[in-house]
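Morning F.,

Quick status update on the modeling queue. The single chain you submitted on Monday has been processed. Sequence for confirmation:
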Amino acid sequence: MNIRFLETFLWVARLRSFSSAADKLCTTQAAVSNRIATLERDLGVRLFERDLRNVSLTPAGERALAQAETIVQLAADLRLGIGDPHRLRGRVSIGVIDTIVYAWLPQLMEQGYAAHPDVDLDLTVDTSLAVARLLMDRQVDLALIAGPVLAPGYRNIELCSYECIWAAAPRLGLHGRRLTLEDLTAYPVFAFSRGSQPHQNVLKLIEAAGLDPHAVRILNSNSLATITRLVRDGMGVAVFPEVVMREMRERGELVQLDVEARLPRLHLHAVYREEPGSTLPQLIARMAAEIAAGEDKPPGAAPHRE
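C-alpha cells below.
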C-alpha cells in the first residue's frame, strides 16, 4: 500500500476538499482523485461521499481514518529514526510575527536549510491573532507567535520572552527623565494591532492609571515596519519588544523612555498540530526553540548581536 496515497487520504479527510488537499500537497486535483480512487480499489471500499459542494467520509472512511493516521505516523517515525535527516523532503508553511523577523528568523532559515536542504520553508508574516487563525484553518503548518494557542490537538513550545519598552525619536526630547503615562498623552501611542498582547497591555495600564481612555490617542497597525518608520519620524511614542529597537537605538534613531508604567514581557511560542504528518513542523519548532533559547535574556543583559 502506497504511503503517499494514505497521506493524500488524510489531507482530503482533514480539509474536506480534493482541491484544497491538492494545494496542500503541491499537486493537481486530478492526481489527488487518482490516488484516492486507487486506494479505494486496494481497500475494496468507498472512502468518501462526493457532491458538488462537499466531501465527507463514508462509514468505511471513518473506520479507516485512525488506522491510516497510525500507519503514516509510523512511516514518518521510521524515516526520522533510521534515515538520513538530510533526505527529509517536503514543504513547511510557517506563520511568523514581525518581532521574530527582527530577532532571529534569518538564523532559523539558515539553519533550517542547512539541516534539511530538501525541505522548503514558506513564510507568512502577520499578527499573532491572524497567524493563529491561519494555523487553525490549516493554511500554515507552524505558527511562531505571541501565544499560546489553547485548543485541543495543538502543541505549544515556549520559545523566549522579550522585555517590552517605551520608545520615541530623540527629537521629541522625552528621554533622560522619569515620565508618567499622563506625560505621554500629548503624543499618539503606537501599540501594534488591535487585540494584540502589547495593545491590550497598554489599555490595562491606562485603566490602572485612572486616565480617560479617550484622552490617549492609541494608533494601531499590523506592520512593525510602518510603526517604526512613523516613530522614527517623531510622530509619537511606541511600545516595542526590546529586541526590535536594538539596532535603531544603537544608530541613535530611537531612544528608550523611562516610564513609570512598566509593561509585561512578551512571551513567544511555536505552535503546531499534533497529528500524523507533523514531523517537519515539529523539527522546525524544536530548531526555533534552540535558537530562541539564546535570546531569552533578563532585562539588563547585554544586547544580542548577530
